[in-house]
TrEMBL record:
Ranges for region Disordered: 1-77
Source organism of this protein record: [Candida] arabinofermentans NRRL YB-2248
Alphabetized UniProt keyword annotations: Nucleus, Ribonucleoprotein, Ribosome biogenesis, rRNA processing
GO terms, biological process: maturation of SSU-rRNA from tricistronic rRNA transcript (SSU-rRNA, 5.8S rRNA, LSU-rRNA)
Role played: DEAD-box RNA helicase-like protein required for pre-18S rRNA processing, specifically at sites A0, A1, and A2.
Protein name, as recorded: U3 small nucleolar RNA-associated protein 25
Family statement drawn from the similarity comment of this UniProt entry: Belongs to the UTP25 family.
Stored Pfam families: Utp25_C, UTP25_NTPase-like
Limits of the UTP25 NTP hydrolase-like domain: 257-512
UniProt biased composition (Acidic residues): 53-69
Length: 762
C-alpha cells in the first residue's frame, strides 16, 4: 500500500472515538497540543483498538493553547518512508471490521515479504579461508585447558558427565553459593550442586582475567583499552560474560555501566564468533587432509571434528527499537576493526534517524529521551554475517552469525513463515548466546513475545532438516542429543529487574523451557538501595530544596499492605483490597474530592477496576490507557484537570505513562494500585501534585499582586495544602523487588514482614 494511502487511512481514524467513561456529553472542541510524531506505539501489539492502526510517538508540548498537528517526519527515501508506514499496521487479535482486518493482513504479508527480500541472494560467495597463523593459534586454543570457549562448548566428555549427573539429581534448581558486595552492588552467584561443576574464580586485574579465559588477541587488545579505567564491578561483569554465565544486570543510575556495558557484551560476542569461525575453518582444513590420507590408504579411520551446531547463527540479540539496534551494530562494526561493510547505506536508511526528543519537548525525563531518540520503530530483524574481510548486513538469517531483532519482529517472522517452504525458520536452533538489551523496554512492549521466542523457538528441534546441508560428523554430541537448553548463555541488561527477568536467567518460573546453564550457573548484579539513595528519599530531598516541605508541611505517603497466599491469588486479593478499603477511603476520607489519580501498572487490573467503577459505583471518573486515541487522551485530560466538568477521578496505566510521560494537571491525590515497575515513575507521578501546587501558588500570587477582588472566591477554591493530599500505595509481599527500589532494602523487609499493615513515609 502506498504511503499516501496509508496516511489517508490513518487520518480517517483520528479523533473519531468518544470516551465511554465520561458522564458528560459535550460538544467537541479543540483541546491539545502541537506535536511532532514518529512511528512507534504506546500499546501492546496483541490487543489493539481500531485507533491503534495509527501508531505514532506523541511527544507532548506543555503549551495547552497550541492545537494538534500531525507532522510526518521525512526519512531517507520514499521506499523507507513507505516501509516505516507499513510497520504501523502489524499484529492484531482484537475483533475488527472486516475491511480493516483485510488491510492489516495485507500489510502484515507485505512486511514479511520485505523482510525476506532483505536476504543475501549471493549463493556463489567465495568460501572463507583460514591463514596458517590463525590455524596455529586455534590449535593453541584447542590445547588450552582453561579456554572458556572450549570448556563451555567443546569439551564433550565433561559436558556429558555434568548432564548425566544433573539428570540423576533430585535438585533441579541452582543454589546461592556466594553473596558479595562489589563497589555499590550486590552480586549473587548461583551454581548447580554438582561435583563436576567448577567453582567460580575471581580476578584482581583485567590482564590476568583475559589471559585465563584465553581471549582472542584482537579482542584482548580492545578490552585492554579499558585496563586502567575499570572498576571492580566492571571487572566482575566481564568475568561473568567470558565465563559464559547467565547474567541479569541492573544498571539503574550507574552512568559508567550504562556507557560501557554494550561494549563488554559485544566484545564477548565477537570473541565467540571469531573462535567459532577459526575452529570450524581449522577443522575443515584438517578434515580435508585426513580424507586425502584415507584416499591414499595411509590411515583407515577418520577422527571426530565436532565443533558446531546444526545452523550457522550463534548469537541472538533482542533490542526494543531500531535506534537501539543501530547503535549496537555501529559499535559492533567499530569493535571488529573490519573495514568492509556490505549494505551499510541500506542499513542506515532503514535504521537511522536524527530525531531528538529535545527538539520537541526538552522537559521529558532523560531515560525517555534516550529510549525514543532516533528511529523508535519496534518491528525489525536483521542478520549479520562475518567473513575474514567483511561484515555483511541483511544476510540471510539462516546464513548469519548474529541476528539482531525486536521481539515483535522476530516473533512475526517466525510465525508468519512457519508453513512457508521458501523460508527456513530453523535459524534459532543452534543459538549459543542470547542477549536481551534494555530489557525493561522489552517488558513494556510485550513480555509475551519474549516468552514465545524463548520457550517455543529458541534452540527448538529442526523442522526443515532436508533443506540444510549438514555434516553430522561435525555436530557436537550434546547438540545431537538436544541439550542446548542446558548449555547456552542468556544475558539481560536492564534499568531495573523484575521477577520475569530473574526467572529467565535462573529458570525458576513455572516452566522448564529456559536455559539452565549447568556448567557456569547464574550471576545477578543488583545495586544496593539503602535509606539514602532510595526513590522516596531522593524525592523528599528534592522537595526540601524547593522549599515545599518542612517541619510543618509534609507530603504523607501511606503504604498499605494486603495479604495474599500466592501469585495466582494476588490479582484477586489486590482487587478486593482496593474495592473494600482504598476505594472507601477515596469516597469518605479525602480532603480534596477532586483530582484523584489512580495509577495502575497492569492493563488487566486496569480493565477490571474500570469496569467495576463503571458498573458498580456512581463515581464520576475518566480513564486513559495505551489504547486511547489522541482525541480521548486530550478530552479526558481536560475533563480531569477542569474541576467544573465533574470528573473527580482518573484511571491511568503504567504503559501509557512509559510511552507518553504526560504532565497531568489537576492532580491532588494519588492512589498506586500497584508499585511502579520503574521506581522513577513513582516520583514522576507524585510530581503531578507538586506541579499543581506550584501552579496554584503562582496564580494566587498574581491575583494578590493585582488586587483582583472579583476573583476572591476562585482564589479560595484553588488552594492546595500538601498536608491534606491523600497518597496511598498498595503492596503485598510479592512486590518486594519493586518495594526495595522505593524505600531501600532494610525498610522493604520491615514493610513486608512487619506487624503493621500500614506505614507512613513523608
Amino acid at each position: 500500500m502506498p504511503s499516501s494511502e496509508l496516511r489517508k487511512e490513518r487520518r480517517r481514524h483520528v479523533g473519531d472515538a468518544g470516551d465511554k467513561d465520561s458522564q458528560h456529553v459535550v460538544k467537541k472542541t479543540k483541546f491539545g497540543r502541537k506535536e511532532m510524531r514518529t512511528v512507534t506505539r504506546t500499546s501492546r501489539r496483541d490487543t489493539p483498538k481500531e485507533e491503534d492502526l495509527i501508531v505514532e510517538q506523541d511527544v507532548e508540548s506543555d503549551d495547552e493553547e497550541e492545537e494538534e498537528a500531525v507532522v510526518d517526519k521525512p526519512t531517507a527515501n520514499d521506499d523507507a518512508l513507505a516501509y516505516s508506514a507499513l510497520l504501523t499496521l502489524l499484529e492484531t487479535d482484537h475483533p475488527q471490521e472486516k475491511k480493516k482486518k483485510k488491510v492489516v493482513q495485507e500489510v502484515q504479508q507485505e512486511l514479511i515479504d520485505v523482510i525476506e527480500d532483505d536476504g543475501d541472494d549471493d549463493d556463489d560467495e567465495e568460501e572463507d579461508t583460514i591463514t596458517e597463523k590463525d590455524m596455529k593459534l586455534d590449535d593453541d586454543d584447542f590445547n588450552n585447558q582453561f579456554d572458556a570457549f572450549n570448556l563451555h562448548f567443546n569439551d564433550d566428555d565433561k559436558i556429558e558427565k555434568i548432564i548425566i549427573e544433573y539428570n540423576s539429581s533430585s535438585v533441579k534448581k541452582p543454589k546461592l553459593i556466594e553473596k558479595s558486595i562489589i563497589d555499590d552492588y550486590t552480586k549473587l552467584d548461583y551454581r548447580y550442586d554438582l561435583k563436576s561443576v567448577d567453582k567460580p574464580i575471581n580476578f584482581n586485574n583485567l590482564s590476568s582475567l583475559l589471559k585465563y579465559h584465553n581471549v582472542k588477541q584482537k579482542i584482548n587488545e580492545k578490552f585492554q583499552e579499558f585496563n586502567n579505567k575499570l572498576t571492580k564491578l566492571e571487572l566482575n561483569l566481564i568475568n561473568s560474560l567470558l565465563s559464559y554465565q547467565n547474567i541479569n544486570f541492573q544498571y539503574l543510575d550507574n552512568e559508567l555501566i550504562k556507557q560501557n556495558y554494550q561494549t563488554y557484551y559485544l566484545l564477548h560476542s565477537l570473541n565467540h564468533i571469531f573462535k567459532t569461525r577459526d575452529r570450524i575453518l581449522n577443522n575443515t582444513e584438517k578434515k580435508n587432509k585426513v580424507l586425502k590420507q584415507i584416499e591414499m590408504g595411509l590411515i583407515n579411520e577418520e577422527p571426530d571434528f565436532r565443533d558446531q551446531g546444526y545452523t550457522r547463527p550463534k548469537i541472538l540479540i533482542l533490542a526494543p527499537t531500531r535506534n537501539s539496534a543501530y547503535e549496537i551494530i555501529m559499535k559492533l562494526i567499530k569493535l571488529s576493526n573490519i573495514s568492509i561493510i556490505d549494505n551499510l547505506s541500506k542499513f542506515k536508511s532503514q535504521f537511522y534517524d536524527d530525531f531528538n526528543v529535545d527538539d520537541i519537548n526538552d522537559k521529558k525525563p532523560n531515560d525517555f529521551k534516550e529510549f525514543f531518540k532516533g528511529n523508535s520503530n519496534d518491528f525489525f530483524i536483521i542478520g549479520l554475517k562475518f567473513t575474514r574481510k567483511a561484515i555483511k548486513l541483511f544476510s540471510k538469517l539462516i546464513e548469519s552469525d548474529i541476528i539482531i531483532a525486536s521481539p515483535l519482529g522476530l516473533k512475526m517472522h517466525l510465525e508468519k513463515n512457519k508453513s512457508n517452504d521458501k523460508v527456513n525458520c530453523d535459524y534459532l536452533s543452534s543459538i549459543e548466546l542470547t542477549i536481551l538489551d534494555k530489557s525493561d523496554g522489552l517488558i513494556m512492549q510485550n513480555w509475551d513475545h519474549i516468552n514465545t521466542i524463548i520457550q517455543n523457538h529458541l534452540n527448538a528441534p529442526l523442522k526443515n532438516l532436508n533443506d540444510l546441508k549438514i555434516d553430522f560428523s561435525r555436530i557436537r554430541m550434546w547438540a545431537i542429543n538436544d541439550q542446548f537448553k542446558k548449555i547456552t548463555q542468556i544475558i539481560t541488561f536492564n534499568k531495573y529487574t523484575t521477577p520475569e527477568l530473574n526467572n529467565l536467567v535462573l529458570n525458576s518460573g513455572s516452566n522448564s523451557k529456559n536455559s539452565i546453564n549447568l556448567l557456569n550457573g547464574v550471576s545477578i548484579y543488583k545495586p544496593i538501595i539503602n535509606d539514602y539513595n532510595n526513590e522516596i528519599n531522593k524525592f523528599k530531598l528534592k522537595l526540601i530544596k524547593l522549599g515545599l516541605i518542612n517541619n510543618n508541611v509534609k507530603l504523607k505517603q501511606i503504604f498499605n499492605r494486603f495479604e495474599t497466599e500466592s501469585i495466582q491469588n494476588e490479582p484477586n486479593d489486590r482487587f478486593n483490597f482496593f474495592k473494600n478499603t482504598i476505594l472507601q477511603q477515596i469516597i469518605s476520607k479525602t480532603s480534596y474530592n477532586e483530582g484523584t489519580l489512580i495509577y495502575i501498572p497492569s492493563y488487566l487490573d486496569y480493565l477490571r477496576v474500570k469496569n467495576y467503577m463503571k458498573q458498580e459505583t456512581k463515581l464520576s471518573f475518566v480513564s486513559i490507557d495505551e489504547y486511547s486515541s489522541q482525541s480521548e487522551l486530550t478530552k479526558n485530560k481536560h475533563f480531569f484537570s477542569n474541576y467544573f466538568n465533574n470528573a473527580k477521578i482518573m484511571l491511568y496505566t503504567e504503559r501509557l505513562h512509559f510511552y507518553k510521560r504526560f504532565n497531568l494537571k489537576g492532580v491532588k491525590n494519588v492512589i498506586f494500585y500497584g508499585l511502579p515497575s520503574d521506581s522513577s515513575f513513582y516520583s514522576e507521578i507524585l510530581n503531578f501534585i507538586i506541579e499543581n501546587k506550584i501552579k496554584i501558588d503562582l496564580n494566587n500570587s498574581k491575583m494578590i499582586l493585582n488586587d483582583n477582588e472579583e476573583d476572591e472566591t476562585k482564589e479560595e477554591a484553588d488552594q492546595l495544602d500538601l498536608n491534606l493530599c491523600m497518597i496511598r500505595i498498595m503492596f503485598s509481599k510479592i512486590d518486594f523487588i519493586k518495594l526495595e527500589k522505593l524505600v531501600g532494602l532494610k525498610k522493604a523487609g520491615q514493610l513486608v514482614n512487619g506487624v503493621s499493615e500500614m506505614n507512613e513515609f513523608n
